[in-house]
Design a protein that fits this description.
Helix content of chain B: 40-55%
CATH architecture of one domain in chain B: Sandwich
Number of strands of chain A: 2
Distance between the termini of chain A: 89 Å
Largest sheet of chain B: 5 strands, antiparallel
Strand content of chain A: under 5%
Number of helices of chain A: 15
Radius of gyration of chain A: 35 Å
Number of strands of chain B: 16
CATH class of one domain in chain B: Mainly Beta
Shape of chain A: elongated
Strand content of chain B: 15-25%
Oligomer: heterodimer
CATH superfamily of one domain in chain B: Immunoglobulins
Shape of chain B: elongated
Structural class of chain B: alpha+beta
Number of helices of chain B: 17
Helix content of chain A: 40-55%
Largest sheet of chain A: 2 strands, antiparallel
Distance between the termini of chain B: 89 Å
Order of helices and strands of chain A: HEEHHHHHHHHHHHHHH
């Protein structure tokens, strides 16, 4: 039978003949044709079950009610289920306890990368080290204005920081400024002169930076004797800091260095902080409860702040 | 001009003439192959019996777990006492290369041996057709008669029995396949308590469908039209490859004999068509080498049995090379075939690689990744600190304790990485800090070696990394 089918003398042709060669019109193998029809059936079934035909407003929904966004949400819910026990445990733990628990520590670090990238990296850099001379504190070294203890780090993130240094352009004369600049620069490599020290004491710098010029963590004043600079270590930049201060509203050229409070409610924190500085007010005196009443959204949740504190602590500088 | 055209047309007609002899098997007729005993049939049984390992293998136990388990969820292959992790998967590539080249060697020497004697398509089809033959009749007329008969309870019962047995084999095949990837006893338990994971059920279902359709219905059509491998092997033949072939010089002109008739004017082929009747793919070997031939040699068995009956020597159909049949020349001996040496070298390389891999299978996998941002940090005392992520994978079966130290830079100190306890099969990443005092900083880029010493063993692992500093 098959032989007859394939016998060119008996098979129908399409009527096309080239150089005496006829184009035969043999049927396709049956299994092949069946697969073709079957795939057609699959298409119809698919069209009925899934969203497919485009209409003017949207498309047919399909019997299964499948949507891409639902699939995404389901996948997300699956992840949340895995995360839930960790998140619950984190809520009940202090940051110190997290540090001591290897498993929770791994989880906290693993889930903080995105948090840090979204909220912190803009100033502090992806790995906790900002661009050089950008004026943001490096989180990876061992020099901490307010202390590198995990609790202090958590506090810095939650409540924010805004250290102040008064502008000295009106308080010091040019010679004194020159001498103090030399003193500060020399202090960092241990070559400060006695005269410099005397002037430092006489002008009251010790009130904030401490008698030994190593800074006072309570106030967040910079350590002037180490190799790390809050802003920059060149004479020019040090002079600028002495003349115009930090966060001093009375000097329009003052350095602005404010860490926002991340536990506060989302809306207008940066705005209010910047406004306060512009209006010669101390940002830490803003009555946040009053300002943010009725705004339910938080910048970061308590758990997120804990995670970030741990994450920052693990950059390599935590104490 | 006209004459020339006529000639062309005549030639084309000649082609048609020849073409009409071609048999293109598109599955229009079901092939019911006659079964005869013989040398090659025995060989085929031997080849097929190797597949019993496939069915029995998963039940082999070793140290209270499955001896061979390709544990995909846990990302490890367990082969007796050896555990292979994804890091060692290159050995799998070498194994595949070895078998691919082995196939090339066998094919270039003796044709599609794999197809004829070992291929699952051949083997399962053979089993399925045996069952069918026993139930519905094992010759084409018997089968035709059975299938054309009206539907009676007997016919219905026989049909049900056939399909039932087919499905049973298909189901066993699916379950067996899955049990190489998951504990077989647990799988059976899960199947009977309806708790088997969906993925396992889907795979088993796919195998049931595949086996039932491919071995039950498509059969030789798979070899003809689906298998890329059948086409691939054909191009590995050369003139020295031995294949089941019809000795046309001896056999032609073919013709039936009558008792007592003189044979001299005719060839040895008595045109009994038994070689065609036994062929599982339904080809006529006397038409020469063709794509449908899976070189199973059953036609050789058939022809030899006929030659015995007509008192002629064996070998009208035999394993012979093109050279032997067409040039009356012997094939080049194996040791003079250049390609075999090339194949051999590749196989040797693969084998050496696998052996080397097993010999040096490291009990741990040690990696030190340098922090990318920041590359280094200056600390308040001026020293430079680099951060690394140290990962150690425990490939042994016991929990190990690892101590670390660093070498290569004078004055360098290691912080944050002291003792690490790693469970079997687990990988733990730990942050390590290396500090170098300012006075020892000679270069912005110095090599540093991390050493991990596994406590209570002679295992020491090393990883070379870099220490970076300011220019």
């Amino acid at each position: 039978m098959a032989d007859k089918k394939n016998n060119p003398a008996e098979v129908k042709d399409t009527g096309h003949v080239w150089d005496g060669i006829r184009e035969l019109d043999n049927p396709c193998p049956r299994w092949w044709l069946n697969s073709l029809w079957l795939s057609g059936v699959v298409v119809v079934v698919y069209f009925i079950l899934y969203p497919s035909l485009p209409l003017i407003n949207g498309s047919t929904k399909g019997l299964l009610g499948w949507t891409q966004i639902n699939e995404y949400k389901e996948a997300l819910a699956e992840v949340e289920v895995i995360r839930a026990p960790f998140e619950d445990a984190l809520a009940a733990m202090s940051v110190e306890e997290i540090l001591a628990d290897q498993k929770m520590l791994n989880y906290a670090i693993g889930s903080s990368k995105v948090l840090f990238g979204d909220n912190c990296a803009a100033c502090h850099g992806t790995g906790g080290a900002p661009a050089q001379n950008a004026g943001y504190p490096n989180l990876t070294d061992d020099d901490w204005l307010y202390g590198g203890d995990i609790n202090e780090i958590e506090m810095s993130i939650a409540k924010g920081r805004a250290g102040t240094m008064p502008a000295h352009s009106k308080l010091l004369n040019a010679t004194e400024v020159d001498q103090l600049v030399k003193f500060v620069v020399n202090s960092s490599n241990g070559t400060a002169t006695e005269a410099g020290k005397a002037l430092y004491a006489a002008k009251g710098c010790f009130a904030c930076h401490g008698a030994d010029a190593k800074g006072v963590k309570m106030m967040g004043s910079a350590n002037l004797t180490d190799r790390i600079w809050r802003f920059s270590g060149t004479e020019e930049e040090v002079r600028y800091t002495i003349l115009h201060g930090v966060n001093d509203g009375s000097d329009s050229k003052t350095r602005v260095a404010v860490m926002p409070a991340w536990s506060e409610k989302r809306a207008v924190i940066l705005e209010l902080t910047a406004e306060a500085i512009e209006d010669d007010e101390d940002p830490s005196e803003i009555d946040w409860d009053d300002e943010l009443e009725g705004d339910e959204s938080e910048r970061l949740t308590e758990i997120e702040i804990k995670k970030l504190a741990v994450y920052v602590h693990q950059f390599g500088g935590g104490q | 001009m006209n004459e020339e055209l006529d000639k062309t047309v005549n030639n084309v007609d000649d082609i048609y003439e020849e073409v009409s002899e071609w048999h293109i098997n598109v599955g229009g007729i079901k092939i019911v192959a006659k079964r005869l005993a013989g040398r090659f049939r025995t060989l085929k049984w031997l080849g097929m019996s190797i597949w019993s390992l496939f069915f029995l293998g998963p039940y082999l136990r070793w140290n209270e777990s499955q001896a061979i388990l390709f544990d995909l969820p846990n990302r490890q292959f367990n082969i007796f006492s050896i555990t292979i992790y994804p890091q060692d998967i290159w050995m799998l590539s070498l194994t595949l290369i070895f078998f691919a080249i082995l196939l090339a060697v066998v094919t270039s020497v003796a044709g599609r041996v794999f197809c004829g004697f070992f291929c699952f398509q051949t083997v399962w089809t053979d089993i399925f057709t045996i069952i069918e033959g026993k139930i519905e009749g094992n010759t084409p007329p018997k089968a035709l008669k059975f299938n054309n008969a009206p539907w009676t309870a007997n016919k219905l019962g026989r049909k049900a029995l056939k399909h039932g047995l087919w499905l049973l084999i298909a189901t066993l095949t699916g379950i067996t396949f899955v049990s190489w990837f998951t504990d077989v006893f647990q799988l059976w338990k899960d199947l009977f308590s309806f708790q088997a994971p969906l993925f396992a059920l889907v795979v088993i279902g796919a195998f049931i469908g595949g086996t039932y359709v491919f071995a039950g219905f498509m059969r030789e059509q798979v070899c003809f039209w689906l298998c890329p491998y059948a086409r691939l092997q054909g191009v590995m033949y050369d003139q020295d490859t031995i294949l089941p072939a019809y000795d046309a010089e001896r056999g032609e002109p073919r013709g039936r004999i009558k008792k007592g008739q003189e044979q001299s004017s005719k060839g040895s082929c008595i045109d009994c068509n038994v070689c065609v009747a036994v062929c599982p793919t339904g080809i006529d070997i006397r038409k020469g080498q063709q794509e449908g031939c899976i070189t199973c040699g059953l036609c050789i068995d058939a022809c030899d049995s006929i030659m015995d009956k007509v008192n002629q020597p064996h070998g009208l159909i035999r394993y012979a090379s093109y050279k032997e049949l067409h040039h009356n020349a012997r094939s080049i001996p194996l040791y003079k075939r250049f390609r075999l040496y090339v194949y051999g070298l590749i196989m040797l390389g693969a084998i050496a690689g696998i052996i080397n891999g097993f010999m040096t299978l490291s009990p741990t996998e040690f990696k030190v990744v340098h922090e990318r941002q920041p590359l280094f940090v200056q600390l308040s005392d001026g020293s430079i600190q680099n951060k690394y992520t140290v990962k150690i994978l425990n490939k042994t079966k016991e929990t190990i304790t690892v101590n670390f130290n660093i070498e290569g830079i004078e004055g360098a100190t290691l912080h944050g990485l002291t003792e690490m306890i790693v469970e079997p099969g687990k990988v733990i990443p730990v942050t390590a800090l290396v500090r170098v005092p300012e006075k020892y900083m000679i270069s912005d880029l110095s090599p540093i070696v991390f050493k991990g010493i596994v406590v209570d063993s002679d295992i020491t692992v090393e990883y070379k990394s870099m220490f970076m500093g300011p220019k």
